[in-house]
Amino acid sequence: MTILGEFEAASFLPWIERHAAKLGLVQAICVAGPDRIELDIAGPAELIDMMEMGCSLGPIDVWVEAIHRAPIECESG
Amino acid sequence: MTRNTMIDGWYPVSLASQLDAHGRRTALMGEPIAVRRGEDGNAKVTGGNGRDLPTCIRYGHVWSSLGDPQKPLFAIPEADQPGRRLVDVGVVRVRCSPLRAVENFLDIAHFPFVHTDILGAEPHTEVQNYKVEIREDEDEVWATQVKFYQPQAAKSAEGGITTEYMYRVPAPTCSILYKTCPPRPGEWDVITLFVQPLAEDLCDVWPWMALFDDETPMTDLIHFQQTIFVQDRSILENQIPGLLPLDPGMEIPTRADLTSVAYRRWLKRHGYTYGAQLVAQ
User: Fold this and answer.
1) Could you tell me which residues come within 8 angstroms of residue B109 by beta carbon, excluding any fewer than 6 positions away?
2) Which pLDDT belongs to residue B155?
3) Looking at the domain B77-277, which fold is it?
4) Which of A8, A26, B28, B137 is most exposed by smallest CB count within 10 Å?
5) Is A18's Cβ below 8 Å from some Cβ in B?
């Protein structure tokens, strides 16, 4: 999941971690910049939808402009 | 202290048809105001310190503002369309945030559970995918292609039909619903929710309608809509938290809440936070 917006505040990353934990999702933040956050999330599609909905609003001190999602290719063997 | 950016908005404060020289004492965002018909016959609204407030009459209501409105009241072109019946539904006082009242109006998923056998019924509880956008040119929230099965979508509906809706939010405490018009295919019935913010946790809700319905007696139209809003009131007055959370930490939205999320994003972007909870508690 790629989140684009204005994330100067330090509040967003811990917020993402808390929100994912509430939904029971496993996540790992791969990129964390002032205007772009990338995270890998694993879990049921409906719950990932809910994660996307929550992140699109986010905490009061950040502005999320857009969220893009793409499937991750699973490594096997 | 942050300036209340909603101060410059227009808000309904009275039915135009009930305007008289004696007047109505009410409130706007915590400030006592008086609404009456002036000696020149026009509506006159005065603030707590006696100052004259901006005033206009539109859509059956008197509108006013505590601040300096930078634009005219939003347009509802259907209000001027020949053949429609314009219905002043009256007022319902609700002990809830004015933003909560609007958000509830935008929520389709509660129909089968709160307005059972009227606007929804089990097992028809699924909200099909629909489209939501913040229209930049108009600076409004729109939800379109909303479809839902309803046992009795309107007073004029005979039996159950799949109703199509559009929702529009042109101002932070006002919403307009366009819905399938059973007697006039191709046209939309217009049902509005104008909310007067008395305080952050108290509001007067003034529904108003512009319908194509020549058959139903006016009292039945009013009674139908009042029944719906009274059913909503018991839900609204028991929501926790009472203010509308702009941080979804406590309420976890789902796909069915797309319109609500868009509304909250729009409020957040503009700093329309009177009646909102900013940080999840």
Assistant:
1) B125, B127, B256, B257
2) 62
3) Naphthalene 1,2-dioxygenase Alpha Subunit; Chain A, domain 1 (3.90.380)
4) B137
5) yes
